[in-house]
Amino acid sequence: MSSPTATLLISCPDQPGLVAKMANFIYANGGNIIHADQHTDFLAGLFLTRIEWQLEGFNLPRDIIGAAFRAIAQPLNATWQLHFSDALPRLAVWVSQQDHCLYDLLWRQRAGELQAEIPLILSNHSKLAPIAEQFGIDFHHLPITPETKAAQEAQQLQLLHDYRIDLVVLAKYMQVLTADFIHTFPSVINIHHSFLPAFAGANPYQRAYERGVKIIGATAHYVTQDLDEGPIIEQDVVRVSHRDQVADLIRKGKDLERMVLARAVRLHLQNRVLVYGNRTVVFA
Amino acid sequence: MSSPTATLLISCPDQPGLVAKMANFIYANGGNIIHADQHTDFLAGLFLTRIEWQLEGFNLPRDIIGAAFRAIAQPLNATWQLHFSDALPRLAVWVSQQDHCLYDLLWRQRAGELQAEIPLILSNHSKLAPIAEQFGIDFHHLPITPETKAAQEAQQLQLLHDYRIDLVVLAKYMQVLTADFIHTFPSVINIHHSFLPAFAGANPYQRAYERGVKIIGATAHYVTQDLDEGPIIEQDVVRVSHRDQVADLIRKGKDLERMVLARAVRLHLQNRVLVYGNRTVVFA
Amino acid sequence: MSSPTATLLISCPDQPGLVAKMANFIYANGGNIIHADQHTDFLAGLFLTRIEWQLEGFNLPRDIIGAAFRAIAQPLNATWQLHFSDALPRLAVWVSQQDHCLYDLLWRQRAGELQAEIPLILSNHSKLAPIAEQFGIDFHHLPITPETKAAQEAQQLQLLHDYRIDLVVLAKYMQVLTADFIHTFPSVINIHHSFLPAFAGANPYQRAYERGVKIIGATAHYVTQDLDEGPIIEQDVVRVSHRDQVADLIRKGKDLERMVLARAVRLHLQNRVLVYGNRTVVFA
Amino acid sequence: MSSPTATLLISCPDQPGLVAKMANFIYANGGNIIHADQHTDFLAGLFLTRIEWQLEGFNLPRDIIGAAFRAIAQPLNATWQLHFSDALPRLAVWVSQQDHCLYDLLWRQRAGELQAEIPLILSNHSKLAPIAEQFGIDFHHLPITPETKAAQEAQQLQLLHDYRIDLVVLAKYMQVLTADFIHTFPSVINIHHSFLPAFAGANPYQRAYERGVKIIGATAHYVTQDLDEGPIIEQDVVRVSHRDQVADLIRKGKDLERMVLARAVRLHLQNRVLVYGNRTVVFA
Questions:
Q1: Is the pLDDT at D249 greater than 70, yes or no?
Q2: A281/chain C closest Cα distance in angstroms
Q3: Fewer CB atoms near the end CB (10 Å): N or C, chain B?
Q4: CATH number where D53 lies
Q5: How far apart (Å, rounded) are the C-alpha atoms in residues C106 and D271?
């Protein structure tokens, strides 16, 4: 399956014939579908689908596919994205002082688990610069204070532009992004160190300890203007006991955080995640 | 979603256009697909799919659908099944002396979780007859000895025929079915009280204890001529520790067994399981 | 291990020599410890322990053990409970209209998993009376309206007194108990159908669906005056996906609820749960 | 809890008074126990315990504790180990060509999760030498052929001696150790990429795929002369589906392997694992 593929992620109002119309589009042009999945949200009256097909043998040139599909999509009031598997998205990883998620993402990218380029690491601290150097990635240190936040966000956006970044991954970046930032650059995945919606906000492990929960979690989600309220991509949990102090929760949570974040980023990069409303469909 | 649906489970050699052809068949006849899922096993060169659509508004009468689809399936060398959601399959539950899986299946059937009728309980012991009576289900006691096994299997097959049984569920039935029986009546789901292929055969909990494993499991599978070797539908596990004696493994295992068996039976009844070779595709 | 045992659950300010003092008490009187576990909460400066020993061969008669241990406990400012394994606690199960947890508890009690008597089922609806009858247990129907709540709670307390109930298990009892009730009868375990503290309060499955979580949970806890805020005994979770409607969450949640509630009740009955502050130590 | 502690791991034939005798030994010498756990295997007639106490305020000097405890242990026929929390064990990590477990262990050691020194990495390939260099650890390349195996094992043992190694961690070292080696150096932890005893031996992921299992696992165990048969320390699992190819099983398994191995090594380093027969007690 190493030959390049095209993937369509589509959502539109539900009506009969949608699967047929979309499958016909691929078939009529000589394409071989290797993955097709669909979901209908009957409450929302919404049809959502992911179709992936081999470009080898497909009769339409790449730069025509979008235009050709638009003719089908428009009468259906569909919103859609088209991706090619050999077009590597460019990631910026944002960190503060903790290195576990950063290390994990870099290792996975090198191991071929994440089909992406990572040309940029950005931090409000300088502590993790040596890791960037070790992996040969540009590191930009942009400290944030309440006074400098606006100016630094402008700088951050400039860097995302300069490095042609497609996706920002907040890998334990402990600053809140402003609504303006998200409005300008909406493609951001965050890892929150709790089982949302439990313990949204600050110090989730401390609060989980105080509440005496028997299980803790981590949540990867798209960032929206409402803190920790964005569409959830992936969650996972681990059991804790009365023997676990806050430091143990943090340690166990680190493993969760890096696993959950890596899975979410991978799903996103494979174009398996479709957001609608505040929910995600994950075509896993 | 309570209006009746039809479901096709199809497998055929992979080739371009399969999704389109099958979706067109539904669409051309006015059907609205509510669930479509597919899987391609590239190693085996096999395409497998499940398509479910609403019968309301579908132009073909029920008794014609099969014949009409045959015209499409034959040139594709497809094997396929057609099911209607309002045709309740008839289950026979087979037990020995343990009641937990039996109780669980009967409770779930009553609660509406299992869309099936259960007209028959069959056992090689008489112990669970009171439960059958309590739920108003016929109970047949067919004790098995090496000498009587052949005759009793004939009797069992006769009962399956008389009660028009579609599926046998071995809910802790501690006898091995012969190859002849399976050949005559192949639709049998078993729950094995281990994480197969670990601890196939007798006394899995005792052997798990002796091996000192830290996790135990249960496995629901279709029964084939090779003991505990049939296609796996569902598995689950639970953590154990050095504090757990064999009796604790048995107790924890009971919860696993009833959950795993119930999930497998439900998936089967919803026509979500497609067997090929010794594997299953579960369109969950 | 079927000979009767005594169990001490003790908490006291931490100081050197506690394990030695308590173990010596058992040993000096000829007892054989079969389970000893301890936990120190260094932040709270608290020592908590569970000691279980065989009564066979123990030199102190049962009715003297408490007085004898008091002499040790008092200088340590310890609070403690003494239980005998052959003294079966008496449970009242409270339900509303859902039967899954009730069935499960009754089945487990009969199967020997719950060492307790269940002489009383109490409900604000009459719907589940047939189950009580089927298991030969008294059923009292006490409907609740805002106007009658106070009078009915008095009636409930009277019944708990008449039946000499030791523990109330709220097995999907959909009424809130008043602070007065809890003050009078504090030994109450509840199952909440969410992963607390997420989705405390009403309609957790609906809200979990709306939030788009990828995992749902259930929580068993002691009931306090603050709704869904009591000490957590046990939690568990199950994965859900975009395919799961609210009805699916409810169905999957039922399995969680009955497992988690049963585990919590069993832990309580085995005197393995020690509450301090709003937390529990579970000597599992 | 950062002041140094002593830990005793003890096993002996069960008899009354063991907890008291051991706790008295600590108390009589002015020690404050911070963790005590015990287990009795009634079938084996064996008592096993772990006691950890603060050295601050303990009246016996370190070099006397062992001799003093021997006087207690001998009449009980006890076998025991004494460890001090500030004596860092020295680890050798053995690898072949896969880097995920190695990276993970090195990261955790740096992050303070593993209280040990790692002065030596040993491999039958040269591929991972750059990682050793990056972390500033000596790397020895000892290629193995059937002809050179005996000589290379002698060389390996010499290196373990020279580097004063306490524990060998086989972090995806794809060679079998001989019985002679294990006899000479028995302290070895291995990670096996299956849920033992399922798929012992070679190519477990391929075989798991072929069997069509729905869950895969990983197992960390002490190495004995019988391949994949040693005492299990820790296991974990992850769900797979028909969509997962062998490459997906390998990828998912890597996450399991590094988590399970790291947990097992950490438990060993904290002196929480006690082996008896072919089983472990894990005082977690």
A1: yes
A2: 5
A3: N
A4: 3.30.70.260
A5: 42
**In which element (H, E) is residue D180 found?**
helix D179-184
Cα separation, A199 vs A212, in Å, equals: 12
Q: How many Cβ atoms sit within 10 Å of the Cβ of residue B64?
A: 11
- The answer on B95 and B59 residing in a single domain is no
Q: Token pair of C262, please?
A: 């049963």
pLDDT value of position B227:
82
Q: What is the pLDDT of residue B1?
A: 47
At A141, list the tokens. 């240190």
Burial of A5 (0-12, 13-18, 19+ CB in 10 A): buried
By Cβ distance, the residue of B214, B235, B281 closest to D215 is B235
B266: domain CATH number is 3.40.50.170
Nearest CB partner across the interface for B242, out of D242, D243, D279: D279
ipTM: 0.94
**Is-contact C38 D36, C-beta < 8 A?**
yes
CA–CA distance, A281 with A268 (Å, rounded to integer): 11
**B134 CA to chain D: closest CA distance, Å?**
36
Would you list which residues of chain D are within 8 Å, Cβ to Cβ, of chain C?
1, 15-21, 23-24, 26-28, 30-38, 40, 42, 57
Determine, for residues B32 and A24 on separate chains, whether the beta-carbon distance falls below 8 Å. no
* Residue A76 · residue A15 · CB < 8 Å: yes
Listed residues C84, C109, C134: the one ending a domain = C84
Pick from A103, A246, A258 the residue to mutate for testing the D interface (most D CBs within 10 Å). Answer: A103
What confidence tier does C227 reach under pLDDT thresholds 50, 70, 90? confident
The range of the structural domain enclosing residue C47 comes to 5-84
Residue C126 φ then ψ, to 5°:
-100, -5
Q: How far is CA B136 from CA B113, B124, B174, B225, D120, in A?
A: 19, 19, 24, 33, 70
Q: What subunits touch chain D, counting only 3 or more CB pairs under 8 A?
A: A, B, C
Of residues B86, B99, B228, B244, which has the active-site annotation?
A: B228
Please count the structural domains in chain A: 2
Q: What are the average pLDDT values for consecutive 10-residue runs of chain A, which has 284 residues?
A: 88 93 94 91 94 95 96 96 96 98 97 97 98 96 95 97 98 95 97 94 94 97 92 98 96 97 98 95 94
Q: Are residues A59 and A165 in the same domain?
A: no
> Are residues D186 and D142 both part of a single domain?
yes
> Nearest-CA neighbor of D219 among D209, D208, D210, D211?
D208
- Options C37, C228, C236, C248, the catalytic residue: C228
Residue D2 has pLDDT above 70, yes or no: no
The torsion angles phi and psi of C254, rounded to 5 degrees, stand at -60, -40
Cβ–Cβ below 8 Å for C212 and A242 = no
Cα separation of B183 and B269, whole Å? 21
Q: Which of C84, C103, C131 is the last residue of a domain?
A: C84
Annotation says C166 is catalytic = no
Compute the nearest-CA separation of B122 from chain D (Å): 29
